[in-house]
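Researcher: First entry.
Model:
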Amino acid sequence: MKTTKKDPIAKEGYVFIASFALASLLIKNKYLKSALIGASAFSTYFFRNPKRQINYTENMVLSPADGTIVDIGKSYERFFFKSKVQKISIFMSVFNVHINLAPFKGVCLDKIYNKGLFISANKPKASIENEQCALLLENEQGQKIVVVQIAGIIARRIVTYTKPNDKVEAGDIIGLIRFGSRVDIYSEKELNLAVHLNQKVKGGDLIGYL
């Protein structure tokens, strides 16, 4: 089951939407019924998959997520580069779209899933201690970045569609994270940034140039 650009709602969301809606039909207590209807409506909103206008040229790096940029700096990337490189962190609240996108056109070279904790995703140590899935991506010019999906205090499920040897187009759906989370971008080559700290971004917005 893989969500595509054509799906208005992420396929992973239907079980939540339907479960809350069905439960509301079976419950007689009007307050609980209202709460369940509200939960179904919120699930529909949370798992929305809006259409994106992707404007991409070579050497661009696009935002893989909707959210707020909470960190820009140098940090040790432990999965693939194993060195201190440039990092950009995007925090996704429960009100952001939680579908993640490919930051450029290229290929997935490797993928690592790492179990961990569920610290609030807006804290820096979440990049080290939380459950996460890292993708090593290479663009057509041979430049590499790492995209890391990180679970949060409420997020308990990382979904990653992309796997090694998959080719991706800029803006392709690579996965999603349920209910509040974070995405880190690591670049071996320093990006010429087009964003700043605390800026709100959407998936497919320009982050910078390699």
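Researcher: Second entry.
Model:
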Amino acid sequence: MWCVVMFDLPVQTKVQQREATKFRKLLIDSGFSMVQFSVYGKYSPSTNGNLSNERLIKNNLPADGEVRIFHLTDCQWSSATRFRSKKMTQNEQAPEQITLF
């Protein structure tokens, strides 16, 4: 499962800029990667991992702006069509899982 977070946060004042930066850093520190500007994604092998990500985000929402969280299966993520500079590119693959004995 992929957890995708999209957001539009105001950055007109210094306080708003700090809150937006703090929110982006929270996502990065939690293992999210930037997919596009204001769109971050994280792979989790289970739905429970995505639910804990959603709780973390809900508990750290900025005062202003809009945040949207949605979940995609690996199949849905990989079936998306992606372009960069008018050229079709491959989508990111789910990271390999480490097996511990």
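Model: Note on the second entry: The mean pLDDT is 88.
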